[in-house]
Amino acid sequence: MQLLFIGTTEIILIVFVVLLLFGGRKIPEMMRGLGKGVKSFKDGVNGKDEETENGERKTEN
């Protein structure tokens, strides 16, 4: 049973609906924000954040 299978027709339909809802100008801004969020999440999972890196640099000097 293929519950999560998404075909080409469904992908095209989803892209069309997203373009109608948000417009062509808003999508790059949304993707940029999503990319920053994913990067922040990955850094958080790896234990990296600006405070930790700044603290380590201060103690090394």
Describe this protein with a few key phrases.
61 residues, mainly alpha, 2 helices, 0% strand, flat
What features would you describe in this structure?
- The protein has 61 residues and is mainly α.
- Helices cover 80% and strands 0% of the residues.
- The protein is built from 2 helices and no strands.
- The chain has helices spanning 8-45, 50-60.
- The protein is flat and about 40 Å long.
- The mean pLDDT is 79.
SSE map:
Elements: H1 8-45, H2 50-60
Short synopsis of the structure:
Helix content is 80%, strand content 0%. By secondary structure, the protein is mainly alpha-helical.
Tell me the structural class. Answer: mainly alpha
Alpha plus pi helix count: 2
Count all strands and give the number: 0
- Cα(first) to Cα(last) distance is 60 Å
- Estimate the strand proportion: under 5%
Radius of gyration: 19 Å
